[in-house]
């Protein structure tokens, strides 16, 4: 299958800029999972299934990478839209094979574009009947997901997710556009990596982290190029 890959990028959880609500929930999740064996001794449930939703470019994928890095676990990234669009009839079988990966080795399983799979179940044609079987299959897979691994799903369209699927997650995190204070912290973090003479940017707000990063990179490149042009004249 070509619809999944192992993500090897390391991301420090402390270098992601969360709002206070997400920061608090993430801290609780990380501590629970760190001490999961102690909690399980008392038959206490330990969260290991996360649903991340909200604006594009605001940290959902980085969060999956950071959790895998934090626990030194393999990150398996699955493109659900690719699996479904290739051969719908084989989707359930393909997903079962991928879920088996985390049975043998503690891993983070990241289901990207989760709304491709979790559409609302009001089906009336053959393709949608097949999709209903796929949704039921993943519900069963989630019910038996191993405690040693972590399941993370991400979507930009939370309204498309079947309620039966949403109930299987232990924790939902909503990623919003960062406010001005958080975005300024992010700008400062990015600009601190460059010499002062190049580290100027006309800061924009009400944009995502991804857009802010692109803005900084473009500004830094332009500043360096302009500096070189002046030297050559």
Taking the alpha carbons of the first and last residues, their distance comes to 55 Å
Shape: elongated
Strand content: 5-15%
Helix content range of the residues, please? 40-55%
Q: Please tally the β strands and state the result.
A: 6
Given as residue ranges, the uncertain stretches (5+ residues, pLDDT < 50) are none
| Strands side by side in the biggest sheet | 1-3-4-5-2-6
- H and E string: EHHEHEHHEHEHEHH
Outline the structure in words.
- It is a single chain.
- By secondary structure, this protein is of the alpha/beta class.
- The protein is built from 9 helices and 6 strands.
- The chain has helices at residues 20-34, 36-40, 60-70, 80-86, 91-104, 126-143, 163-166, 180-191, 209-232; strands at 4-7, 49-54, 74-79, 107-112, 150-155, 171-175.
- A 6-stranded mixed β-sheet has the order 1-3-4-5-2-6, sandwiched between helices.
List keywords for this structure.
alpha/beta; single chain; 47% helix; 233 residues; six-stranded mixed beta sheet
Helix and strand arrangement:
Blueprint: E1 4-7, H1 20-34, H2 36-40, E2 49-54, H3 60-70, E3 74-79, H4 80-86, H5 91-104, E4 107-112, H6 126-143, E5 150-155, H7 163-166, E6 171-175, H8 180-191, H9 209-232
Helix pairs in contact: 5-6, 8-9
Please outline what is shown here.
The chain has nine helices and six strands, in the order βααβαβααβαβαβαα.
């Amino acid at each position: 299958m070509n619809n999944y890959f192992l993500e090897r990028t390391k991301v420090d959880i402390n270098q992601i800029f969360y709002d206070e609500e997400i920061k608090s929930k993430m801290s609780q999740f990380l501590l629970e999972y760190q001490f999961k064996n102690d909690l399980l001794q008392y038959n206490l449930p330990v969260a290991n299934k996360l649903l991340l939703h909200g604006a594009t470019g605001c940290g959902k994928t980085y969060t999956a990478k950071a959790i895998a890095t934090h626990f030194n676990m393999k990150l398996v990234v699955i493109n659900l839209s690719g699996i479904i669009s290739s051969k719908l009839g084989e989707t359930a079988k393909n997903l079962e094979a991928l879920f088996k990966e985390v049975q043998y080795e503690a891993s983070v399983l990241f289901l990207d574009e989760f709304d491709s799979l979790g559409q609302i179940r009001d089906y009336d044609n053959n393709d949608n009947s097949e999709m209903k079987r796929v949704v039921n299959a993943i519900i069963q897979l989630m019910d038996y997901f191993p405690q040693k691994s972590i399941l993370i799903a991400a979507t930009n369209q939370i309204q498309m997710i079947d309620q039966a699927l949403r109930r299987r997650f232990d924790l939902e995190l909503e990623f919003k556009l960062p406010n001005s204070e958080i975005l300024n912290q992010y700008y400062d973090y990015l600009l601190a990596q460059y010499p002062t003479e190049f580290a100027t940017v006309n800061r924009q707000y009400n944009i995502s982290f991804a857009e802010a990063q692109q803005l900084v990179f473009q500004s830094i490149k332009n500043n360096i190029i302009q500096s070189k042009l002046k030297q050559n004249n």
